Amino acid sequence: MRNHIVLLIVINASWLASAKIIRVECPSYCICEYYSNLKKATCVNRTIVVADLDLPSQTQILDVSYNQISELNENVFIKNKLMQLQLLNMSHNRIGEINIFAFKGLKRLKVLDLSYNSVQRIHSQWFNDLSKLEHLFLRGNHFGDTSRLQDYSFNSEKLKVLDLSKSYITFLKSEIFNLPQLNHLDLTGNQLITLNQDILSQLKSLKVLKIKDNFLTCNEEMLILKKLLNSRNIQYDDDPCKQQKSKFERIIMKPATTAYNDNSYWIIDDKGETEKDDPVEKIPCQTFQKENSMVNLSELPYSLFIITVLFYGILIGLVCGCSVKSCKMRHKMRHYRGKCTVHLKKIKYLENETQLLTSNEIVLGNSTPVFIRK
After folding, report:
1. Domain containing residue 181
2. Distance separating alpha carbons of residues 354 and 213, to the nearest angstrom
3. Out of 9, 190, 240, 347, which could bridge 169 as a Cys pair, Cβ 3.0 to 4.6 Å?
4. In terms of pLDDT, which residue wins out, 302 or 151?
């Protein structure tokens, strides 16, 4: 017996001595590293256009987000020997076509992120091999009216978190869900007008429902849904039936005039008029009259309002026209004044010349020759 044990030890030691440590390397467009004791391959923002990647088969986390991948063909992950994947991030691509057998072989996958793509249809066949899937993120896709989807398109026994936010969903039918373990449903930022209570009957484990930023209204159906949510202690982040002022109402409401004081008023008696003196600061009469005039103007009928605006417009035009004419008259007066000063200077100059000529005249007498006399 001892000889057999010694022989086994010798064989194991010789096998370990002969074993080689294999170094697995990633392609040049990816980075391979360890993340939480898992082998992770990061190929982010590398302008990758196809999902056929030459990655090691030991890859457990794959991040190919922010690329140009447009479709997922049949058995694409089996062909690339990536059956060990536990987390797959393909967000921010252009994926619009996904074959019903695209995810075949991913029996260990727990997290799938297809956010911000062009996915429009969900096929129940996707979940046939995704038996351990717990988190599915479909945020930012284009589903629109889910009545186009097949019944029980979301068909998973293990799924716990489903993100359908910002996916342009206008109507959500309850028959598309077969998710008995789902506890978190995110419908934020869609275009839902109503939400059927039958959805909750299919989601028996639901604990959190996010419905904020939709077009939900407080109708009878919403009241029934709200009652059911409260009875099952399901958390929800929006209540359309809660009395609160909407954004539009807050915009069109007239702001409160804080300057107006109810304690400032007049007391008139038969003997004479006396003004009540209050310690509160009074409003100037001019400001108060302006406010009243604006209120009366806004309360006028439409026709009178138009006539009033035209009247004020004509008055403003006349005032502007008169001011322009006065400016032109001033300019002309300045021009004429300039001309007058020039003429006056010329007259003064001529007078001076005549004085000089008269002063230089020769005094004629009797002795002056006749031909010189005038």
Report:
1. 25-244
2. 100
3. 190
4. 151
